[in-house]
């Protein structure tokens, strides 16, 4: 079986990342799902944005945690990429889930645990439940405290560790958290890593794969999931059905 194919922040290489148009483009190219990031606003809204600040991706300035969503929602997340994207907004997680429903899989990355964003894990789980999408979602993070809290709150939701390093180094942590996935930097995965991880009943995802030859190579290697900024190229390289 081919790996699951995910658009990174929607279709980051083709459009304003982590926006509704970006997710729509990824879906149009035929990916299985999209990867997206969540932070918590000052008024406790789950905002879909990669950075801790709005500075890089919008025409505004400030930390997400110090802005209300009314303030964030007035920003333009497209204008920096050209006039054709002018007026593109920063969505809430609920906007994404409401727009796409069960038509996509979602890898939702918690950027920081409750130590930075109090209650973010509970709020995220409640939002997923509200849309009845638990079977479509995997919660992922570099912050293992966040994953530990998610697991404490929900014994069954699918979770995945994001790592920089050899997957074999994280097998014990994944088992302790009852995580099904390890998502590793693509350049650090070998056939041995894949075998050891699979032998421990864990799945491997690779990120962020943007070269066509690499995409084909990982498809042939037998990884379980590939994430790319260019969903058009990824689907062309790996999807045969």
Automatic annotation (TrEMBL):
GO terms for biological process: lipid metabolic process. The keyword Transmembrane does not apply. PROSITE patterns: GP_PDE. The keyword Hydrolase applies. It comes from the Archaea. Its EC number is 3.1.4.46. Residues 3-238 form the GP-PDE domain. This is Glycerophosphoryl diester phosphodiesterase.
């Amino acid at each position: 079986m081919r790996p699951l194919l995910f658009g990174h922040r929607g279709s980051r290489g083709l459009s304003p990342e982590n926006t509704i148009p970006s997710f729509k483009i990824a879906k149009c190219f035929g990916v299985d799902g999209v990867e997206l990031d969540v932070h918590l606003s000052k008024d406790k809204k789950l905002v879909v944005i990669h950075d801790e600040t709005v500075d890089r991706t919008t025409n505004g300035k400030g930390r997400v945690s110090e802005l209300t969503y009314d303030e964030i929602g007035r920003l333009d997340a497209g204008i920096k990429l050209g006039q054709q994207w002018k007026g593109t907004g920063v969505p809430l997680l609920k906007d994404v889930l409401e727009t796409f429903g069960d038509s996509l899989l979602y890898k939702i990355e918690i950027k920081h645990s409750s130590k930075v964003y109090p209650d973010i894990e509970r709020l995220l789980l409640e939002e997923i439940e509200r849309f009845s999408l638990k079977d479509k979602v995997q919660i992922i993070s570099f912050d293992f405290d966040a994953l530990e809290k998610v697991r404490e709150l929900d014994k069954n939701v699918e979770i995945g560790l994001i790592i920089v390093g050899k997957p074999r180094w994280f097998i014990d942590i994944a088992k302790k958290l009852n995580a099904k996935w390890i998502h590793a930097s693509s350049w650090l995965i070998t056939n041995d890593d894949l075998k050891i991880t699979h032998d421990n009943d864990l799945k491997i995802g690779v990120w962020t794969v943007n070269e066509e030859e690499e995409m084909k190579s990982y498809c042939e290697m037998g990884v379980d999931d590939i994430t790319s900024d260019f969903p058009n190229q990824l689907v062309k390289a790996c999807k045969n059905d």
